[in-house]
Structures are given as structure tokens and as C-alpha cells.
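Sequence in, structure out.
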Amino acid sequence: MWTYKTPGIPDEQFVQSDRVPGPTKEEIRVLTISKARLGEGALVVDVGCGTGSLTVEAAFQVAPTGKVFAIDEYKEAVELTKSNVAKFALENIVQVINGKSPEAMRNLPQVNAVLVGGSRSLREVLCVSQEKLKKNGRIVVNAILLETAYTALDELKRLRFKDIEVVQVFVAKGKEVESGTMMLARNPITIISATKR
């Protein structure tokens, strides 16, 4: 059980599957939650929730009175997210939705933050996110591909978001080998965050 308010649950504590990418790596989750600027009582949407690692991290930040809406179009991802939500006893904070974004977002209430981890309809998701975000609400996009980062940046500018920030993160983790500690690089991630006017 995770007994801390700070984000950074070790990756190995999440239920994982070879059929669903993830979890979002620990260091990326820490930065993502930081950029989202969540607090108790906030409402959050996690688009493309995958294993649910960001959903779980966000739920700890908004508990006990907030809510996280975790959306994924793939049934395997939805089931995995539900498993991780149950493992961390967050069922009363998280609603898992099996649906394709942005359509699955349309009936949600106004929210304080949107986290976008994956979407094949990124421009449309960002447009609906702008509609769903409260004034000064935050959006955070995690991009593995350069094309995704470019599209997110271009669309956020077009939608007139403010305080747009781009951070590219390179993480290497130590692994013990016979002769010492070897640093193993993880994929670089571009984190784009912005605030709704």
C-alpha cells in the first residue's frame, strides 16, 4: 500500500500486462502530477489511462473529495486500470470509463485538469479538453513521439492556452551488475503543460 501523499509509486507496485503499455515511468508520473497542480477536491480526466498509473497518482492527490475519470478505448487497459485502482483502494475516487476519446469526455463535468497519455485523435481531444476545463484548469500531455509533441504544442497555441511549457525528460536508472552500477537509459519523454485562459 502507498501511504505517502507525494507521487512516485515504484513501477513494480502496479499490476502490469504485456498487452497494455506502461505503466508511465515513476519519474515521468512525478513530473506530470507536478505540472497538473492538483489539490484535494480537484476533478481530473486521464485520457488513455493504460495501466492506470497516472490515474492512481492523481487520485491520491485529489482524495478524499476529488474525482478522477480514467478513459481508455481498450478493454484490457480498462480492466488493468480497475485492478490498479482496487489494489490502491481508490474505487471511491476513480471512475473508469471504457470509451474512445474525445466522445467519452463529452458527458463529463467541468474539471480542474486533463492528463493526456495517449490518443489517436489528439487535436480533437485537446479541443474537448478546452471545453471541459475550468478557467485556469491545467492540461498535461506526455508525448513519446516527436510528432505527438509537435501536434500538442501547435494545437494548444491555436486554442490560445497560456503558460505553455515544454520539458523533455531523459531518465537513466541504475542497475547493479557484477562490476558496479550501470546506468540504463529510458525513452525520452516530452511533457507539454498549459493553462486554460
